[in-house]
Specification:
The chain is mainly alpha-helical. It contains two helices and no strands. The protein has a domain of about 60 residues. The protein is flat, with a radius of gyration of 25 Å.
């Protein structure tokens, strides 16, 4: 029985990128339409400050946790513990 080899052709990659780009454009169009057509009272300055602080805090926490993850992996804190070996390295 012959092996089936799957290769990415240039046409396949172009079709995939075109489909993803179309989805991105449609999502951006929908988001912009939803943002401009929904009416309501304007957000006060305190709301913008709170939103900015929340975004910055979330990014700091996410980046800090990723940094700890890479540090832990690089220095062996994620390695399997072997009983009887009290030496950490």
């Amino acid at each position: 029985m012959a092996k089936l080899r799957v290769t990415w052709s240039t046409v396949g990659i172009a079709a995939m990128l075109a489909a993803l780009l179309a989805i991105l454009i449609a999502a951006a169009w929908f988001a912009s339409r939803a943002w401009t057509t929904i009416s309501g009272p304007p957000m006060p300055t305190a709301g913008y400050v709170a939103m900015t602080l929340g975004i910055v805090f979330s990014l700091v926490v996410g980046c800090g946790l990723m940094a700890l993850l890479f540090y832990s992996n690089r220095y062996g804190y994620d390695d399997q513990f072997k009983p009887g070996n009290d030496d950490p390295k």
